[in-house]
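Task 17 of the worksheet. Students: predict the tertiary structure of the chain below and write it out as structure tokens. Keep your answer in the requested format; marks are given for formatting as well as content.
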Amino acid sequence: MSINVNSPLRSALRCGIAVPGLLGAMALIGALALGCGTDDGPTGPASDAGAGTADGSAGGAGVSLATIRGSLAASLDDSRAFHNMIVAAGRDPENGNFSHQVLLPVPAATGGPGGGDILVLERWNNFDNMMRTYGDPGFQMAFAHFFGAPPTITVLQLAEGYTEVMLPAPAGVDTRFTFVVGGTLSADVGASRTVHNDMVASTAELARTSGYLTHEAFLGPAMSGDPRQFLGIDSFATLEGAMSYFGSPTFQAGIATFFTGPPESSVWTPAPAEWATW
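Model answer:
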């Protein structure tokens, strides 16, 4: 499920902010810190009236992932400073956003005007709060300053029953490379789960010797109309190890019919430590 952030932003927040440029950005930070977000009330959890997910189920269950990808409007240094101020002003440890990762493409952008692409991965344990946050005019106004064009936000849910991988990093290796692979499953969710788990099991030994660190699988929410939308997030200690794993005959045999067509893939590395993450 993708969230449309291309619609025009409201002309003002509840606190009356409508100043473009850096002054507007600083005013936005102040508004977020004061809890001023929407015309209906402060940013944060709304009242219980009408609570629930789009499919009518109770909100807050399970783990949801939001991928936010776009091109920076400014240099890496300026973007980092703005990002960190927004995060410091708007972060609420009670709203269910328990993980915020910032990734840069490989090779990482080196700065200058239009610092390049960026990928933010956010994990939530409260679906309703996540959707309120991304739909909030204050949040979207921050996007207008941070990104050079409206970013793409895709929301998925942790794939139930799909095997996860979590292995220790090799001693003395501090690098990490994240591979994001997405596509449409060629079979239903249950049959694809079997194929996926068999593939993970059959490559377990190769994973250990290739510097494979983590694997998570996500699917499109049921309310999106396309629950076969799949996204895998894999991290490796080295690029060489990743190429060895993905290029192995065992992996290639398993992945050959997993998707309806060639999946989309990209490679990222964590942003420098100066970026606020958790």
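Marker's comment: Confidence is low (pLDDT under 50) at residues 2-60, 109-115. Helices lie at 21-34, 76-90, 127-135, 137-146, 189-202, 204-209, 239-246, 249-255.
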